[in-house]
Write a structure and sequence with these properties.
single chain; about 375 residues; alpha/beta; FAD/NAD(P)-binding domain; Enolase-like, domain 1; 3 domains; five-stranded parallel sheet; globular; binds flavin-adenine dinucleotide
C-alpha cells in the first residue's frame, strides 16, 4: 500500500524550505504544500525594505522560479485555506470540503500581524505589513506628501519609516514604551536608532499610547492617550505578530507561546510537526522554550523538520540571528539578549560602526553589530562554540 502524502500547511519561507529539503533528502512519496496566499512562496524581509521602495520586482521576491514545484513533483496548492485537522483520522480538511489524508503533517502557518483593540482600525487607510497584498494596498494609496502614522517602533515599523522617508513622506512613529526597539536592544542601541530616524526627518513619540484612529470613512488623525491629536492620511499598525495556532489548538496540540514542539520539531501528536514563526521549542542554549520570528529560523527549522519527518532524531538548537536595514544602516543581531546583566561596547558610534555585546556573568548571550558585518560573523562563531 502506498503511504499517504506528507502535507505541509503554510507556503511561506519555512514550508517551502521543508518541501525542498524533503526532496533533497530523497523522499519520493507524494508531497503537498498548501498555502492561502495567491503567490508562490516568497521572501518577506524585502516587503518593508526594497520591495516597498519599488527597488525589487515581484519576480525577485519569489523564492523559486515558476517551474520549480512541477519539476520537483511538489503539489503546491495556493489560495487554499486549511479549515481543520482531524488528527485521529490523520486528515486535513480544506475550505470547500475536500479531505486529504496525511502520513506526516507539518504546520508552518507562521504569524499574523497583531491587532490592538482601539476604535478606528476598520477605517480606510489603516494597514499592516505582512504580505505582498499589504504592500500593494499601501503603495496604491500613497500620494506625494502623504502623512503616515506608524504605530510601533519595532523593526518593521522603523524599516517602513525609513523606506517611506526615501519618498519624503511625512512619517510619525508612535511607540508605547520608553524607547524604540526596547524589547530587543539595550538603551544605547535604541538611542542610536532614535537619532538616526530623527536625523532623517521622522517624528518619534515614545511613551505614547494610541487611543483611537479617527476619520469619517478614511483615516484623518490619530488620538493619543494624553489627548494629543496627530493628523494622518494613513496608519500602519506595526505592533508585532502573533503565531497562527488555531488549527493546532483545535486539533488538541499543546500551545505554549506558539505550537509547542520538542527538539525534533514534533508536536504533542507524534505525526504532526511544527516549524518556523508558529512554533516554540525548547532551547538548551537558552534553557527555556523560545519562539523565533526570523528567516534564519524559518529556513533552518524547516530543514530540520523535513529531516525529522523522515526519522532523524537530531536536536534543533540554533544560534538565532537576524538583521534589519534602515537607511544605509545594517543592524545584525546574533543570539538573544534577554536576561543580560551587562554590556560591552566596541567600535565607534560616531563612525556609524559599532557592536554591543550582551553578557550574563561571563557568558555571551548576544551581539548587536551596526555596520560591522565581521563582528556579527565572529559573534555567531563564538556563540556556536559555547556549550
Ligand atoms: P510565514 O512567512 O508567516 O508563512 C506562513 C504561511 O502560512 C502564510 O502565507 C499564511 O498565510 C499561511 N497559512 C497560515 N494558516 C494557514 C491555513 N490554515 N491554511 C493555509 N495557509 C495558511 N526576518 C529576518 O530574519 N530579517 C528581516 O529583515 C525580516 N524582515 C521582515 C519584514 C517583514 C515585513 C516581515 C513580515 C517579516 C520579516 N522577517 C524578517 C521575518 C521573516 O520574514 C519570517 O520570520 C519568516 O517569513 C517566517 O516564515 P514562516 O514560513 O514561518 O511563516
Amino acid at each position: 500500500m502506498v503511504d499517504a502524502p506528507i502535507i505541509i500547511i503554510g507556503a511561506g519561507q519555512c514550508g517551502q524550505k521543508a518541501s525542498e529539503t524533503l526532496r533533497q533528502l530523497g523522499y519520493d512519496g507524494d508531497l503537498i504544500l498548501i498555502g492561502d496566499e495567491p503567490h508562490a512562496p516568497y521572501q518577506r524581509p524585502p516587503l518593508s525594505k526594497a520591495f516597498l521602495k519599488g527597488e525589487m520586482s515581484l519576480e525577485r521576491l519569489m523564492l523559486k522560479g515558476p517551474d520549480y514545484f512541477e519539476q520537483s513533483n511538489i503539489d503546491a496548492r495556493l489560495s487554499v485555506w486549511v479549515e481543520r485537522i482531524d488528527a485521529s483520522d490523520k486528515k486535513v480538511l480544506l475550505q470547500g470540503g475536500e479531505a486529504i489524508a496525511y502520513s506526516k503533517l507539518l504546520l508552518a502557518t507562521g504569524t499574523r500581524s497583531r491587532r490592538i483593540p482601539v476604535p478606528g482600525t476598520d477605517l480606510q487607510g489603516v494597514h499592516s505589513m505582512r504580505t505582498i497584498a499589504d504592500v500593494e494596498a499601501i503603495t496604491s494609496e500613497l500620494k506625494p506628501d502623504t502623512r503616515i502614522a506608524i504605530i510601533g517602533g519595532g523593526y518593521i515599523g522603523l524599516e517602513v519609516a525609513s523606506a517611506l522617508r526615501s519618498f519624503k513622506h511625512d512619517v510619525t512613529v508612535i511607540e508605547g514604551m520608553e524607547r524604540v526597539l526596547q524589547r530587543v536592544v539595550c538603551p544605547q542601541v535604541s538611542d542610536y536608532f532614535h537619532r538616526l530616524h530623527s536625523a532623517n526627518g521622522v517624528a518619534i513619540h515614545v511613551n505614547a499610547v494610541l487611543e483611537a484612529i479617527e476619520g469619517s470613512g478614511r483615516v484623518e488623525r490619530i488620538r493619543l492617550r494624553d489627548g494629543q491629536e496627530i493628523g494622518a492620511d494613513m496608519v500602519l499598525m506595526a505592533v508585532g505578530a502573533e503565531p497562527v495556532c488555531e488549527l493546532a489548538e483545535e486539533a488538541g496540540l499543546t500551545i505554549e507561546n506558539g505550537i509547542s514542539t520538542d527538539g525534533t520539531c514534533r508536536t504533542s501528536d507524534p505525526d504532526i510537526y511544527a516549524a518556523g514563526d508558529c512554533s516554540s521549542f525548547y532551547s538548551g542554549r537558552y534553557n527555556r522554550h523560545i519562539r523565533l520570528e526570523s528567516v534564519q529560523n524559518a529556513i533552518d527549522q524547516g530543514k530540520h523538520a523535513a529531516g525529522a519527518m523522515l526519522g532523524s532524531e537530531e536536536i534543533y538548537d540554533p544560534v538565532p540571528w537576524f538583521w534589519s536595514d534602515q537607511y544605509d544602516t545594517k543592524l545584525q543581531i546574533a543570539g538573544l539578549s534577554q536576561g543580560y546583566d551587562r554590556t560591552e561596547f566596541e567600535g565607534d558610534e560616531a563612525q556609524n560602526a559599532f557592536a554591543v555585546r550582551y553578557l550574563s556573568g561571563d557568558r555571551l548571550l548576544c551581539v548587536d553589530a551596526v555596520n560591522m558585518p565581521r563582528a556579527h560573523m565572529l559573534a555567531r562563531r563564538e556563540l556556536a562554540s559555547q556549550d
